[in-house]
Amino acid sequence: MLVSHETPISILEESKLYNDYDYALVHLFETHPEYYNFFKCSLAAGREVLLDNSIFELGESFDPKKYIKYITELNPTFYIVPDVLEDAQGTMSSWNKFFLNYGSDLKGRTTIGVVQGNTYQELVDCYKFMSDNADYIAISFDYKWYETVTTTNRSGREGTLDRWAAGRQHLISRLVEDKVWNARKPHHLLGAALAREFATYAPIASELNIRSLDTSNPVVAGLLGHRYMANQGLNHKPSMMLADMIDVDVDEDQLDDIIFNTKQFKNIISRYK
Fold first, then answer.
1. What pLDDT is attached to residue 271?
2. For residues 87 and 29, what is the distance between their CA atoms, to the nearest angstrom?
3. What is the C-alpha separation between 198 and 183, in angstroms, rounded?
4. Which of 49-53, 135-139, 141-145 is least confident?
5. Exposed site from 37, 55, 69, 265, fewest CB < 10 Å?
6. Would you say 187 and 137 are in contact if contact means Cβ atoms under 8 Å apart?
7. Where are the domains of the chain?
8. Buried b / exposed e across 40-66, counting CB within 10 Å, b at 16+?
9. Looking at the chain, which runs of residues are DSSP E strands?
10. Neighbours of 105 (CB within 10 A)
């Protein structure tokens, strides 16, 4: 699995040491031209760039008129088509509307469709739609549905993180069992509740065509002075978003913690290979 960790601007160049590809949040292009320029240069240097519609940060997909401008100007390797959080019908409608309005400008560009839904059947319906239409299929880390199908001994936020981590594993297993999963299409895992979740996928990533994942977790933890534990990462998830720390002037100690955490993350996802 290819890995990318969203990173503050001050260490974007250093992030090439620990990122297999570069992950861009489109809403930051408007306020940080140096951020946009980094990804433009990455593409020119032959690196892959995934452009995210920033729905996790904004609560809704970035303005489609502005988004299409950045897609056509940047020409990223992949881009996430506008979706609607936990709304299967809204996401499918958003896809259709986006291509109805801008399809002529998007020919030949590689799409990532995010599965959304509030029940298993809605997730299945949306998955099938993305299987038919998207080049890549993305599965998010924090559907509320996950909390209804898994259990944990921990309470509060820690318990929610456990259920999210186990929930995505449950969803993928069930889609495979129900013969819904399309292993002919590459898959992307969006975000992380707990890093140890990804160790589960190492033995089956190739078989299921799970190609890539992204999470800022090791970077945010390092910025806050938290070091990963061997083979599992953290037992909690920092509540701050990387986008809110994009302007942090990273010092040597923070960079050391980030590099340590990203190495540990790679160890976690590969330890069963």
1. 59
2. 27
3. 18
4. 141-145
5. 37
6. yes
7. 2-266
8. eebbeeeebbbbbbbbbbeeebbbbee
9. 2-4, 22-25, 49-52, 78-80, 110-114, 136-140, 187-190, 210-214
10. 12
Helix (H) or strand (E) holding 131: helix 120-133
Please tell me the chain's helix, strand, coil percentages from 3-state DSSP, rounded to the nearest 5. 50, 15, 35
DSSP readout, 211-222? EEEE--HHHHHH
Ranges assigned E (strand) in 74-185: 78-80, 110-114, 136-140
Q: Are 227 and 255 in contact (CB under 8 A)?
A: no
Confidence tier at 150 by pLDDT (50, 70, 90): confident
**Whether the predicted pLDDT of 54 surpasses 90:** yes
Tokens 């190739």, located at residue: 206
Query: Do residues 115 and 137 make contact, with C-beta atoms less than 8 angstroms apart?
Result: yes
Neighbours of 107 (CB within 10 A): 6
β 2-4/210-214 pair status: parallel
Q: What is the CATH number that goes with domain 2-266?
A: 3.20.20.105
Task: Give the single-character DSSP code of 11.
Answer: G
Beta-bridge partner residues of 139 = 189
